[in-house]
């Protein structure tokens, strides 16, 4: 057993912007129980034939790394210990069993404690995964309380993808254990990891490993896409599984399949690139779209919320910070450093003018809040349409509590508290999230009214009024010793143009789990009694004046809503609280159920508002009396400000 710890000094990258390390595993085909013995070697990032595979896996929390779980890395004929998480050790043993001996894996091939090296290696991710012979996706060991991997993989290959029997598997008596194993497989932690999006999208070919079981990514993705298509459109599998006693007759057994990270990964990665006949790929999606779409995907490093998607966006390319690029270019050859800087800026600017791709700085030394503000600035200034400010309405960042109590140094000011501004919205406001037990995705908030770019359902500021040149960002440090809650806290401000439209006069209670509170109808009746005006548009408020596709609502919506209230009155003796979930799960009229789904998606955790000018609408749960309703130039929807 090696006692001495391995040091990266044994394999120091001379130029981390152009070189990488490869892990060479000894003894291909050796049984699982034998320890891992290997060595680290250097390779140029470009040139030569690449025989390595890249491993895509789930880190978990850093404190899960047990220093007693180690591999042996040989240097100068001596073995050194290198601590790795148990799950990574298992993955390497399975790869060795399959006689795969050259592997790139981030936890070992990048010095994770060397920030400068990370800044240079992250921009190489596109090349590392794109040039790898194959990408192996490690889902973990097939044992314990996890899903039955062998059952799930066999069911995908011999069941779901056997199209002759597909209808039987769905419509008749579905094989409950097999479908449940697929559901459990789709909720593995791996599929919520942010870096996997680019790792899978860039792969020439990919293979999923669950213990010693394996399946190609192509087979897995086709099966999940078929499952999603049928279940999202018909809910027929959930209806059939509802009758299964072993699973407790649970309605919505599979939850919202289309919102699962595994489903998002499959559906979106299919559209990230257009691959040409010459082998080249063309990125199709903007960075703003990717960040706004993958809200359910997490990373242990908050900055990777942005950095993990740079290599697959059509409008960005990751680049290390300015001085590191010049170092890598051997800047000592330049006698005039100012000339080198001007030359660098000219080249970058020249390239950006002629391509849609813009260099995007990767810097793990930068405060997390600055990285997020930089992204908002980028998204606003490079938006494709008039809705430049819609990014302010989308939830996309990790929980801001992750930043709380973290001190940073800003210039000469040491030990400031980093915070996020209110105009950068947390993913806790996203429409869907995993249930506490992690078995399915469930709604936790209403859908975001602005949609994902380049969608535009509304035009509050008009169709041509964009963000003006007055846009600017400002930051500083609060100096209020008498208020310790905010003293020495970093703040960020954004300045935009717009106008006050109205002000909140009265609020109804928030819709709990999509229930239409009876108080909402009472508010409308009170308005009618005060003004002697008849309000026929309650249904328009409930559906946000759009159908599920973002088009004008159906003319029959009022009739369907009236029918739902009549059914509720029959069941609950004039109770004017309408439970949309009950109708969705147990109703008998499909058009009414579809309407309830739309209403639920719009009102969930929102409040009904009456303004001073007698406007009615839906507002966020945090809205208070006296808040302002404002129109910002560049935003497609009104915003609530305080």
UniProtKB/TrEMBL annotation:
The name this protein goes by in its record: HET-domain-containing protein
Organism phylogeny: Eukaryota, Fungi, Dikarya, Ascomycota, Pezizomycotina
Residue ranges annotated for the Heterokaryon incompatibility domain, each copy included: 52-199
């Amino acid at each position: 057993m090696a006692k001495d710890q391995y040091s990266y000094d044994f394999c120091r990258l001379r130029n981390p912007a152009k070189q990488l390390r490869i892990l060479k595993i000894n003894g291909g085909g050796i049984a699982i129980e034998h320890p891992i013995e290997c060595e680290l070697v250097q390779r140029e990032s470009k040139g030569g034939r690449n025989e390595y595979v890249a491993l895509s896996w789930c880190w978990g929390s850093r404190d899960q790394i047990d220093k007693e779980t180690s591999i042996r890395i040989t240097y100068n004929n001596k073995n050194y210990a290198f601590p790795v998480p148990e799950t990574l050790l298992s993955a390497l043993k399975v790869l060795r069993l399959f006689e795969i001996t050259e592997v790139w894996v981030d936890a070992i091939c990048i010095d994770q404690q060397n920030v400068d090296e990370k800044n240079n290696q992250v921009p190489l991710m596109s090349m590392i995964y794109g040039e790898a012979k194959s990408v192996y996706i490690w889902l973990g060991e097939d044992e314990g309380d996890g899903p039955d991997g062998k059952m799930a993989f066999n069911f995908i290959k011999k069941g779901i993808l056997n199209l002759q029997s597909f209808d039987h598997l769905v419509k008749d008596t579905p094989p409950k254990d097999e479908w449940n194993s697929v559901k459990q497989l789709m909720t593995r932690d791996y599929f919520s990891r942010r870096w996997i999006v680019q790792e899978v999208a860039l792969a020439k070919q990919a293979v999923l490993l669950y213990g010693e079981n394996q399946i190609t990514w192509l087979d897995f993705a086709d099966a999940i896409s078929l499952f999603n298509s049928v279940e999202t459109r018909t809910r027929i599998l959930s209806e059939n599984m509802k009758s299964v006693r072993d699973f407790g007759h649970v309605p919505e057994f599979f939850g919202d399949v289309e919102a699962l990270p595994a489903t998002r990964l499959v559906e979106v990665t299919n559209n990230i690139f257009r691959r040409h006949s010459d082998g080249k790929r063309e990125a199709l999606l903007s960075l703003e779209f990717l960040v706004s779409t993958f809200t359910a995907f997490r990373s242990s490093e908050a900055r990777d919320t942005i950095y993990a998607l740079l290599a697959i966006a059509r409008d960005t390319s990751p680049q290390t910070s300015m001085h590191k690029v010049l170092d890598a270019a051997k800047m000592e050859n330049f006698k005039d450093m100012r000339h080198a800087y001007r030359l660098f800026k000219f080249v970058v600017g020249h390239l950006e003018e002629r391509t849609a791709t813009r260099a995007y700085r990767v810097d793990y030394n930068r405060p997390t809040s600055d990285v997020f503000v930089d992204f908002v600035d980028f998204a606003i200034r490079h938006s494709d349409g008039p809705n430049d400010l819609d990014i302010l309405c989308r939830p996309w960042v990790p929980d801001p509590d992750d930043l709380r109590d973290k001190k940073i140094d800003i210039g000469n000011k040491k030990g400031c508290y980093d915070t996020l501004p209110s105009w950068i919205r947390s993913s806790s406001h996203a429409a869907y999230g995993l249930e506490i037990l992690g078995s399915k995705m469930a709604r936790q908030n209403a859908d975001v009214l602005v949609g994902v770019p380049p969608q535009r359902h509304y035009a509050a500021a008009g169709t041509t009024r964009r963000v003006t040149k007055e846009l600017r960002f400002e930051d500083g440090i609060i100096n209020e010793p008498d208020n310790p809650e905010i003293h020495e806290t970093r703040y960020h401000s954004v300045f935009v143009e717009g106008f006050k439209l109205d002000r909140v006069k009265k609020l109804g209670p928030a819709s709990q789990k999509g229930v239409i509170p009876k108080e909402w109808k009472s508010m409308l009746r009170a308005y009618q009694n005060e003004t002697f005006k008849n309000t026929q548009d309650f249904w328009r408020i409930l559906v946000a004046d759009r159908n599920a596709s973002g088009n004008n609502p159906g003319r029959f919506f009022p009739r369907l809503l009236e029918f739902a209230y009549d059914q509720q009155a029959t069941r609950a003796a004039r109770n004017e609280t309408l439970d949309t979930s009950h109708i969705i799960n147990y109703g008998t009229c499909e058009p009414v159920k579809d309407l309830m789904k739309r209403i639920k998606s719009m009102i969930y955790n929102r409040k009904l508002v009456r303004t001073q000018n007698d406007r009615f609408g839906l507002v966020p749960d945090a809205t208070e009396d006296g808040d302002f309703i404002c129109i910002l130039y560049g935003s497609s929807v009104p915003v609530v400000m305080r």
